[in-house]
UniProtKB/TrEMBL annotation:
Residues 278-384 form the Mur ligase C-terminal domain. This is UDP-N-acetylmuramoylalanine--D-glutamate ligase. Pathway: Cell wall biogenesis; peptidoglycan biosynthesis. The keyword Nucleotide-binding applies. It comes from Candidatus Portnoybacteria bacterium CG23_combo_of_CG06-09_8_20_14_all_37_13. The gene is murD. NCBIfam families: murD (TIGR01087).
Length: 410
């Protein structure tokens, strides 16, 4: 496969979205000289931010607010956004009409000339990918970080040389795209696997199977680094196996050692790493109350992890249900929090505690209530444990609104 193969081809991009992946795909194929059709169920106003980024291209057309069946029949290739389930009726129509379907990740793996380090997990994959990239930069001049971390793989492809190292954060949805190419990264890291995305997958086993694509097609010259609790997943594998404790720091140490980064540089990088936006991100201290944005905690286990970092927590949680079990979290809430402020959403009624609980209508009200309740020495933590659909554009919009109202004068 070569980029020139796409010239003058009709390409349907299914799902533009707001995270950058759809924009990256549309830009890539437009620059390759393809005739691009972007289709999304969201309307033009909702996608305004993404559309503006593509305004220079005359060879991109849009079909928004709907998916038209003809766009899945009369085309040479469909690029499926990872958020689109594989059993979509529009994709079924494409298959009936013998139209090939692919993903940005699948095509990237075909075109990328460099070694790929892929990192997945239910929790911690963004932090682990970012920290590994920082460690590698201590020795290598061309280290590229992309994937599920809001950087399109197509946007960075022109920068990548054979001597580069490509560090990719890979979601289960993205890993589905590797199956048809029978490709896995040279080095695969699995931080952990919890029950997650059960609104998308029929079972935990199906979700786990998607995660296993990260090492399914590795060979004996490749390496799998996996949380020792998941050892049973890696039976009868071809790559070299390395077990670790599941932390981003230990994963970064192992990656650094593989690529012969000095121990001194590894430890210095780990010590100086400040973390990522939306992941236990310190926002501000007001009247001796500290505010943290953990909007990327979209399942109960991630909330538990966040709560265990603090004492005297006023927790802002709740949102859209992903068919997850909150029983374990509810027990922890009784031990760890002072009060619970619940955002509206289909999962919010599952989150229960004996402690003071306040239901509100929006993020502004949530922060105002938290400011009233919190006393000096307390922590106000946004750690929703749920998806952001409905009330917010996406999880980062939720975090931005939290930070905005924390910063606001009251």
């Amino acid at each position: 496969m070569q980029i020139k193969d796409f010239k003058d081809k009709k390409i349907t991009i299914m799902g533009l979205g707001l995270h950058g992946g759809g924009v990256g795909s549309a830009r890539f194929f437009a620059q390759a000289g393809a005739k691009v059709l972007v289709t999304d169920l969201k309307k033009e106003q909702e996608l305004k931010e993404s559309i503006l980024k593509l305004k220079e291209f005359k060879n991109i057309e849009y079909a928004l607010g709907q998916h038209r069946m003809e766009d899945f029949k009369n085309t040479d290739l469909i690029i499926r956004n990872p958020a689109v389930p594989d059993n979509s009726r529009h994709l079924e129509t494409a298959r009936e009409n013998k139209v090939p379907i692919d993903t940005d990740i699948g095509i990237f793996f075909e075109l990328c000339p460099a070694q790929i380090i892929g990192i997945t997990g239910s929790k911690g994959k963004s932090t682990t990918a970012s920290l590994c990239a920082e460690v590698l930069k201590k020795k290598y001049t061309s280290v590229i970080l992309a994937g599920n971390i809001r950087v399109s793989v197509f946007d960075v492809l022109p920068e990548i040389k054979k001597s580069s190292l490509a560090v990719l954060e890979l979601s289960s949805w993205q890993l589905e795209g590797l199956k048809q190419h029978k490709k896995s990264p040279h080095i695969a890291v699995i931080t952990n696997i919890y029950k997650e995305h059960l609104d998308r997958y029929k079972s935990f086993e199906e979700y786990t199977s998607a995660k296993k694509n990260i090492f399914k097609f590795q060979n004996k010259n490749d390496i799998l680094i996996i949380d020792k609790k998941l050892r049973n997943l890696a039976k009868d594998i071809k790559p070299e196996l390395k077990l670790f404790d599941g932390t981003s720091q230990e994963a970064a140490r192992i990656i650094g050692e593989i690529y012969e980064v000095s121990e001194k540089d590894i430890e210095k990088t780990i010590k100086g790493f400040r973390g990522l936006e939306g992941r236990l991100e310190f926002v501000k201290e007001i009247n001796s109350v500290k505010y943290y944005n953990d909007t990327c905690a979209t399942h109960p286990e991630a909330v538990i992890y966040g709560l265990n970092q603090f004492n005297n927590v006023v927790l802002i949680a709740g949102g859209t249900d992903k068919n997850l079990d909150f029983a374990k979290l509810n027990k922890v809430l009784n031990q760890k929090i002072k009060a619970l402020i619940l955002l509206p959403g289909t999962a919010s009624n599952k989150i229960k505690t004996r402690k003071k609980t306040i239901k509100i209508e929006n993020m502004e009200q949530a922060v105002l209530q938290a400011k009233k309740i919190a006393k000096p020495g307390d922590v106000v933590l946004l750690s929703p444990g749920c998806a952001s659909f409905g009330l917010f554009k996406h999880e980062f919009d939720r975090g931005e609104k939290f930070k905005k109202y924390v910063q606001a004068e009251t």
